Amino acid sequence: MDVVPIPQLADNYAYLLVDPATATAGVVDCADAGPVLAEVRRRGVRLVAVLATHHHFDHVGGNQDLVAALPGLQVFGSAAEASRIPGITRPVRDGDPVAVGELRGRVILIPAHTSGHIAYHFPTERVLFTGDTLFAGGCGRLFEGDAAQMMDSLGRLTALPDETRVYCGHEYTEKNLRFAAMLEPGNRRLREKREAVEALRREGKPTVPSTIGEEKATYPFLRIDSPELAASVRERVPRVRVEDPVAVFAALRGLKDNF
Ligand code: ZN
Ligand code: FE
After folding, report:
1. Please, what is the average pLDDT of the chain?
2. Residues with catalytic roles
3. Hey, is 31 helix, strand or coil?
4. Ligand 2 ion: Cβ-proximal residues, 5 Å cutoff
5. pTM of whole model > 0.85?
6. Cα separation of 35 and 249, whole Å?
7. Domains, the chain, ranges and CATH?
8. Phi, psi at residue 23, to the nearest 5°?
9. Taking the CB of residue 19, how many other CB atoms lie within 10 A of it?
10. How remote is the CA of residue 71 from the centroid of ligand 1, in Å?
11. CB-CB contact of 52 with 85 (8 Å)
């Protein structure tokens, strides 16, 4: 599988996933059809599917134009959000299969940012599309769920193999890692990752993909066991019950929302 990030709007990514064996492609999350269709033409592939992670406009705003340009296009999206996903033809639930050419993926339900948010996992390719649930060094805001639900959803993703490549919905990495470094300045892997990310951004390059292993080593919300992190949170939110992981997670979410 080739995965091509296509910048959308201010800081979104659509991803063209290409099956070279059949010269077919799918697109994960499309806010703006123009750049996606241009990339499809440039590569000489046939776009057969849209894979929507959730209903927000910056992830599905381009669906209608894609369908108009390519009649018969399959639009996958969460059954729980079907009424809010333009052009949907294939409502899917947790564990359902998805196919792009000969590539085989599966849906993982990861609610909290939205109540029906899904990820698309391609296990043989070791590729995961996480939308606005797991970013590189971050997670989405809790618009339709709570901290406990987000912890469960992130837990489903971090249970995947460490080498799984993570393609997320936004280029937020640099700011996310600045927040992480404030809380865990002694984390060597975080320092190294931050340097690499800053170098990429200086060249205007995307910081995706990350990997599940990198996220577990650097993303504070997944590092509630780190004593340095716990101490940092306690210093900033003195009343937090550090023995309760959900309370620490909620405190972190509050700190990040105001960062
Ligand atoms: Zn969103
Ligand atoms: Fe978004």
Report:
1. 97
2. 54, 56, 58-59, 113, 132, 170
3. coil
4. 58, 132, 169
5. yes
6. 37
7. 1-92 (3.60.15.10)
8. 55, 35
9. 20
10. 26
11. yes
